[in-house]
Write a structure and sequence with these properties.
It is a single chain. It is built from eleven helices and twelve strands. It is α/β, with parallel strands linked by helices. A hairpin with a 2-residue loop joins strand 5 and strand 6. The longest helix has 13 residues. The mean pLDDT is about 95. The structure holds 2'-monophosphoadenosine-5'-diphosphate (ATR). The site of 2'-monophosphoadenosine-5'-diphosphate (ATR) has 15 residues, from helix 6. The site of 2'-monophosphoadenosine-5'-diphosphate has 15 residues, from helix 6.
């Protein structure tokens, strides 16, 4: 039997077992995917012992993504760009690391709002944390000519611009509204708008009428930002789609089948989110 897991501290809230469990069942695979709580001081030892524990690999969530990156023997370009990994797998004795959040976001965008690509316009990214870094990397790989990164702490936006070079421009938070008028795509990568944080104060009326609006927050499923965008008739990309798509590469590595993100799977996770 092939085994995989998600590790974190805490880990109870993770919805990854629901996603991978659905795919295991659907494909009739003799495998398992469980949650394992791993303390920060134990993570290096845990990852060094993956094979001994019979694991083909694992997903990694907070606060272990940087430790996972360091533990790996090989890292994909997205993990290197972010300095963190969320997916690990063994090839023989070698441990491979990937950051599939970038793939998850870009794939969801491609599938759910393919029109974004036909427009050669700037992209406005709100936030400059790890999530923003991965998304900026994905956008540049996709050929975006100008990414504007607006953040409360300007120096973090400047670090991203410094890392990725001339196609990225750093802005202070108050400059975000003024940078929206010609943006083809707006992406919220901050935690603002989550059930437990304050609201994101951004007026979608500033965006062009054919802009696409994306939020990586998925609890609530429809953030105030997305609700306002939808009310204006803008195309919306929600955070749940990113979560579902980011799971595909890991499952493929561990279990040898490329799974599909379907409406049925989405409904399972929606029911779980709404039930809590
Ligand atoms: P992640 O790795 O998930 O992106 P992070 O590194 O903690 O998480 O980044 C969180 C992002 O949300 C940052 O851009 C943060 O802004 P700062 O760099 O200024 O901290 C942003 N953020 C969080 N709370 C915020 C708030 N109240 N107002 C504006 N931005 C906020």
């Amino acid at each position: 039997m092939k085994r995989a897991a998600v590790i974190g501290w805490p880990i109870e809230h993770s919805r990854s077992p629901l996603i991978h469990g659905h795919w295991l069942q659907k494909h009739g695979i003799d495998g398992s995917y469980t949650k394992i709580a791993v303390r920060p001081e134990e993570v290096a030892g845990f990852l060094a012992g993956l094979a001994k524990q019979g694991l083909a690999g694992c997903n990694v969530t907070l606060p272990h993504k940087e430790a996972a990156f360091r533990a790996a023997d090989e890292r994909d370009a997205s993990a290197i760009a972010v300095g963190a990994a969320n997916t690990l797998w063994l090839e023989g004795k070698r441990l491979f690391a990937a950051n599939t959040d970038t793939y998850g976001f870009m794939r969801h965008l491609e599938v759910s709002a393919p029109q974004w690509r036909t427009r050669d316009r700037p992209v406005l990214v709100l936030g400059a944390g790890g999530a923003a870094r991965g998304i900026v990397y994905g956008l540049l790989e996709a050929g975006v000519g100008e990414v504007r990164v607006a953040n409360r702490t300007l120096t973090r936006a400047e670090e991203i611009a410094g890392h990725f070079g001339r196609h990225v421009r750093a802005l202070g938070w108050e400059a975000a509204a003024g940078a929206a008028g010609d943006a083809g795509l707006l992406i919220n990568t901050t935690s603002l708008g989550m059930a437990k944080t304050g609201p994101l104060d951004f007026d979608v009326a500033r965006l062009p009428e054919d802009a696409v609006v994306a939020d990586i927050v998925y609890v609530p499923l429809e953030t105030e930002l997305l609700a306002a965008a939808r009310a204006r008739g803008l195309a919306c990309i929600d955070g749940l789609g990113m979560l579902l798509h980011q799971a595909v590469p890991g499952f493929t590595r561990w279990f040898g089948v490329v799974p599909e993100v379907t409406a049925e799977l989405r409904q399972i996770i929606v029911a779980d989110i709404e039930g809590h």
